Amino acid sequence: AQSVTQPDIHITVSEGASLELRCNYSYGATPYLFWYVQSPGQGLQLLLKYFSGDTLVQGIKGFEAEFKRSQSSFNLRKPSVHWSDAAEYFCAVGIIQGAQKLVFGQGTRLTINP
Amino acid sequence: EAGVAQSPRYKIIEKRQSVAFWCNPISGHATLYWYQQILGQGPKLLIQFQNNGVVDDSQLPKDRFSAERLKGVDSTLKIQPAKLEDSAVYLCASSFGQGASEQFFGPGTRLTVL
């Protein structure tokens, strides 16, 4: 069965520091991979997605992610975080069954220290 | 372009009562999704519509949950009767079509069952 694991439930970093959020997936075929961000009381916003091609994907708000097939990983990175990046981050794998079905990880809550 | 609209934003009910949520997707989006997000977890797909037909309802607790999408536009999700474990945020999302289309999420309805 398809699954997504985000090993870190909560991460705290200082403003201006670099960030890496981990994501591992389990899926038998070539995955479609996504990172979403959810601020308190808000819906999910797409940060970036990987479908095929270049394994380093650029997204909005200065985020990037790298797909590593050998490690079944799709880690999210940002070189310098801002206080406004504090939020919940979700990794998801997309399964194409006609329309697309997303299977989400449990999320990583990011706290930014001033 | 207007986003996905959901109402109400918050709802508090007692167990065994009934509740209904409404979703208006982005204009022209054929695919509509309902997700359940329990506190501390990632969203879980409950049901997926393509126009007004159900594509996937394998994780919908059909003894108490029902959903419809009349005329392939708006959708309602109903719970009858509610249980304590139904306390969650119910997210609606829509996408333009089939395949790897991006899903756009509404702000969600936070349900508390007492």
What characteristics describe this protein?
heterodimer; A: 114 residues; mainly beta; six-stranded mixed sheet; B: 114 residues; seven-stranded mixed sheet; four-stranded antiparallel sheet
How would the blueprint of this fold be written?
The complex is a heterodimer of chains A (114) and B (114).
Chain A: E1 3-5, E2 10-14, E3 19-21, E4 24-26, E5 32-38, E6 44-50, E7 56-58, E8 64-68, E9 73-78, E10 87-97, E11 99-104, E12 108-113
Parallel strand pairs in A: 2-12
Antiparallel strand pairs in A: 1-4, 3-9, 5-6, 5-10, 7-8, 8-9, 10-11, 10-12
Chain B: E1 5-7, E2 10-13, E3 19-24, E4 31-37, E5 44-50, E6 53-56, E7 65-68, E8 75-79, E9 88-95, E10 104-105, E11 109-113
Parallel strand pairs in B: 2-11
Antiparallel strand pairs in B: 1-3, 3-8, 4-5, 4-9, 5-6, 7-8, 9-10, 9-11
Task: Write up what this structure looks like.
The complex is a heterodimer of chains A (114) and B (114). Chain A is mainly beta and 114 residues long. Helix content of chain A is 0%, strand content 57%. In chain A, strands 2, 5, 6, 10, 11 and 12 form a 6-stranded mixed sheet that branches. In chain A, strands 3-9-8-7 form a 4-stranded antiparallel sheet, with no helix packed on it. Helix content of chain B is 0%, strand content 48%. Chain B has 114 residues and is an all-beta fold. In chain B, β5 and β6 form a beta hairpin. In chain B, strands 2, 4, 5, 6, 9, 10 and 11 form a 7-stranded mixed sheet that branches. In chain B, strands 1-3-8-7 form a 4-stranded antiparallel sheet, with no helix packed on it. At the A-B interface, β6, β10 and β11 of A face β5, β9 and β10 of B.
